[in-house]
């Protein structure tokens, strides 16, 4: 009758376990960083494999806040309807450059009435002359 071999797994001179298969003994030795002995002789040194890197997953992810956009408020304006074909000027003067013309019945948005001129929202001017060329809506 053949004698079964016994494999002893030992770590730091202490017996961990006796096993009957070399494969099982090697697995345990690898897990424990131990050695396998058979018939009093060391036949395998376990290799402790590095544990895989731990990946930290945030269960509560940080959400970057969107930068707040400055609140854009439109200036207060009034609406006027033109009574004639009118020149739109760069400055409130008949000598100022003409930027464009607006046809009769065009509605314009006005920031203010200044010295007989309509100061439009885009910074240009149209002659007003006390309601001669435009009427307030």
Structural class: mainly beta
Report, as a whole number of angstroms, the end-to-end distance.
Answer: 118 Å
Which geometry do the CA atoms define? rod-shaped
CATH topology of the largest domain: SH3 type barrels
- Fraction of residues in H or I helices: under 10%
CATH superfamily of the largest domain: SH3 Domains
Low-confidence stretches: none
Largest sheet: 5 strands, antiparallel
* Topology, number of strands: 11
What is the beta-strand fraction? 35-45%
Radius of gyration: 47 Å
Which strands sit side by side, in order, in the main sheet?
10-9-8-5-11
The ordered string of helix (H) and strand (E) elements is EEHEEEEEEEEE
- Helix tally? 1
| The CATH C-level class name of the largest domain | Mainly Beta
Task: Tell me what the structure shows.
The protein contains 1 helix and 11 strands, in the order E-E-H-E-E-E-E-E-E-E-E-E. The radius of gyration is 47 Å and the shape is rod-shaped. Strand 6 (86-89) and strand 7 form a beta hairpin. The chain has 2 domains: 7-45, no CATH class; 78-136, SH3 Domains (SH3 type barrels), CATH 2.30.30. The chain has a 5-stranded antiparallel β-sheet, with no helix packed on it. 8% of the residues lie in helices and 38% in strands. By secondary structure, it is mainly beta.
